[in-house]
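Mods, move this if it's the wrong board.
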Amino acid sequence: MGRLCCDYKNLTLSFNEFHDVKEKKRPAYGEFCLLELKNGDLTAGSWCPDNDKKGLNGKFNRGFADSLPLSDASRWHSLDRYDMSNCLEQEDLNLINLGVPDEDIYSLKLDGFKALSDGDLPKTEQYCLLVMKNGELAAGRWDGDPGDADGSFVYASAYACYSADRVWLWRALSSDDIFLAEEERAREREHEEELNKKPSVDLSRFKYGTDINVYYEKALEKLREKYYWATLTKMKKVKPWEIVPNHGQMVFGQVGSSYDGSRIVTECEQGNTAEEFIDFLCEYTKDAVINSNPEEKFKLGRDIEAYLSQAFNNVKKEYHWLTQKIAKGYCTYDIREVDGDLEFVRKYRNDDEFYVCEYDSAERFIEAVERDYANAALLANPVVATYEVPFGHVEIHGWNLERYAFYRLKSGNFKVSVTAGDRVAGGSRTFFITSRCFEADTYEEFLKRYLEIVPGSSFGLGMKELLPNEELKKFLGYTK
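Not the wrong board. Structure tokens:
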């Protein structure tokens, strides 16, 4: 495609092939359409018919959790069937007809297009008609902060989107409930910011000032009367409290963010006075302090090898080919002082630094090391044979089963990998098939034990699908 150089500031698109929804013609499944609604608004979406035989009813999908029923629409016009690339390369052209104009056919002319390259950006959640850089038409809802040119246009479920670098021109379609709700949220955020510029302070509640650490330190003094090992670090392992402005006044609160990045303050509902809040802090952090008892956490001592040795020996029972070299090459552990407290720390092979392992007991830390050692063992054991289980359409809690494969490893052991996903996302899980499964005398008994590890209800294939499979039976070594 050549250079896009038409006079886009004066560009008009004329849509001349509208279809009335009262007619029986419908778009193809997934076809993107420009829509005129019964109330006169303009929007767009991809057609998704219901599961009726004729496919005359359905909805138009516009993005994540965003769709319109056919009953809201008056007319639809395809956006997928046009390539305007040749027209957009003509400098003196400012009108493009999509379909042949006819006096007896409803037509709609749209102008007012803006170029992203000029710095003209839609407002957040604004639904727009798009002219792509390849000359095609599309639509989507702008997902980006104000002034953020790196945003994108969401057009389908799971946040499938067109990145800004694929779009040349855009034009806002009619405001809808999602956009209007975002506009209202924006006004509320501006009002909140104005209120919080000079927040008021209740002196009975903030007797010790507005430094939250003062309140934590007073709570720490009380906790140490019963739990000598208590520290601020241990107390703040649960989500810490802050003193922040909210609705124009200082409050004890926890600060988070919503899906759109806006600030959310959860106020503390307990403690109307400073002393009551300090008592609340003691109760709020008590479990974290109790669970970090060093006598319980480091019951095998301060030498990390005592914990690693126990984990290694436990994993070695099943993963018999595991060696110290394999284990130590996968991950490094230690016990170090972090912010004044002893902690289990871990560094994987490609990490540059250690990270704290948030486990409150020796047992939980050892279990985590065992999982790491098991993964290391599987990675070190090459696959020598593969069998992919054939299957038809299998849905797993909204995802589709894509691959179900058994692997024979060099050591003679087996593992299985299950992959599932939808149109835009997916994932895989790998499981080691334990020796207990192969201690079964029959293939059926093997499957009963195997399905305790990889249950059919969670991963798609159960006894009904796997028992008749003679090839899998032979692959796993059951010949009778």
